[in-house]
Amino acid sequence: RLVQGLAGLAGRAEMVAVVFNRVDQTSDLRVYDAATGDLRATIPMGGAVQSVVASPDGSRAFVVEMIAPDPAFRVSVYDAAAGTLTSWEPMEGTPMAVAVSAAGDRLHFSLQVQNADPSGNLLQENRLETWDTATGQRLNRVVVSENWSSLEPTWEGERAYATPGGRRGGNVVLLDLATGAPVEALSIAASGIKLS
Question: Among 6, 83, 130, 172, which is most exposed with the fewest C-beta within 10 angstroms?
């Protein structure tokens, strides 16, 4: 088993969520007491987990998992207080990056989507999507020219710092989340970014 990702839960990391993926493409979300290391809960997931991010207040963990057979991806939400897991409808495409807004009310995704044209040729499209964390509904979708491998929303929630995907890496870019347009290119080369 491999640890896929972890996220602090219940404010100031009172609990830590850790994901264990198995060879058979299933996984567990395990919640540990941050102070003692004691296991508080084990929740079987429906598929292999790609990433997990916590809401800023630590009340929820958003788990992106791959579900067979397509493969398709969906978000499952773990409520730390209730100890429950709720799954949203599958999303279209493969998530390359996921981030939660500073207010905790929005999830932002960088997605790669493959579609076939009328001749059967596969076409790849890069998208930025914003989803409501309370309802699991998509609020915005824009087609963008770049595959972003990391997203980090700014405090006001209208923009995000992003780093390009792929092996080449590149400079950090500030994006407008509503339009997907770059607002500013920074002279900082990085493969990921995190604001604190």
Answer: 83
Tell me if residue 123 falls in helix, strand or coil. Answer: strand
* Predicted confidence (pLDDT) per residue in 112-128, tens digit: 898 888 898 888 899 99
Q: Where are the beta strands (DSSP E) in the chain?
A: 2-9, 15-21, 27-33, 39-45, 48-54, 60-67, 72-79, 84-87, 94-100, 106-116, 122-132, 138-144, 148-153, 159-164, 170-176, 182-190
Q: State the Cα–Cα distance between residues 44 and 26, nearest whole angstrom.
A: 8
Per residue in 21-67, pLDDT (tens digit) is: 777 777 888 888 777 888 888 888 878 888 888 888 888 888 888 88
Residues 170 and 182 sit within 8 Å (Cβ to Cβ): no
